[in-house]
Automatic annotation (TrEMBL):
Transmembrane segments: none annotated. One of its GO terms (biological process) is circadian rhythm. This is Circadian clock oscillator protein KaiA. Residues 1-179 form the KaiA N-terminal domain. InterPro entries: CheY-like_superfamily (IPR011006), Circadian_clock_KaiA (IPR011648), Circadian_clock_KaiA_N (IPR020844), Circadian_clock_protein_KaiA_C (IPR020856), KaiA/RbsU_helical_domain_sf (IPR017944). Residues 189-297 form the KaiA C-terminal domain. It comes from Chamaesiphon minutus (strain ATCC 27169 / PCC 6605). SMART domains: KaiA. Pfam families: KaiA, KaiA_N. It comes from the Bacteria. Keywords: Biological rhythms.
Amino acid sequence: MSGSLTIAVLADSADLFALLGQNLSVERYAVKYFTDRAEFLDYVERVKYELDCLVFYSEHQLLPAIEALYVRGLILPVVIVHRLSPDNLPSHEPLAVANSSASSSYIYQPSEVTLAVTQMSEMGIAIDKAIAKFLNLTPIPSATRQERPAKVETQQHIPEPNFLRQQQSRLSQKLTERLGYLAVYYRRNPSQFFRHLDRRQKQELLDALKLQYRHIVLEYFADSTQIDLQIDEFVSAVFFRDLAVSEIVKIHMELMEEFSDQLKLEGRSEEILLDYRLTLIDIIAHLCEMYRRSIPREM
């Protein structure tokens, strides 16, 4: 199905299938369900380059399935569903925060996402997060590879870092080819979002964006062939940092105040500054369009 994500599900019973079907739209997800581990593994092996994410809701088959995936050298995005309540889930970071480093508490691989069965309505979000985290996953350094994932014993079969990079590259390219602009979303790293930066990093980012915005304003009404590219670069920087529109407005207002002070010193009218509202409107429109085209519906 063009534009859809391919998901393989392993569950202990078929009861989960209807529940998943209620929360995953057929327009966006092509889901293949399995209760038999051997059939699931054969399918994963057969279509491994087309698969986008795995979903496990099988407490009895989970660890044997993961062992088999290691033997096959397969590392893929994954969501693991538990029957526990959210408060009793294994120690994992919240869905809103991506993890790009190895963790000693993971079961399959460090970018996995866990979900309580009571949170099944969030399955679409969890899948998107699992893919985003996987694309930002850092290969486990060889010095730490002796630290075994939780309860998994077959360490000699853990895929090498170069295989992980190949999988990430294939998935990234595939998302771009199949999902077009939508694939941009999966390349965002939430750990680099503006709200997660420290005070110094935030100020450095705002200073850089303000300088970019100044160049855009000064050339906006000039006959410049670079203005569209400059706007795209500014909007992309804002998008990947998940910067609020209010911060853009603040940058605009501060810059207009600077220009106003300069015009007053020169004895010139400030009325010209009103025209630059078009610059702000144009940039916000570009940003809104980028969000509209790239953020999955479930988000």
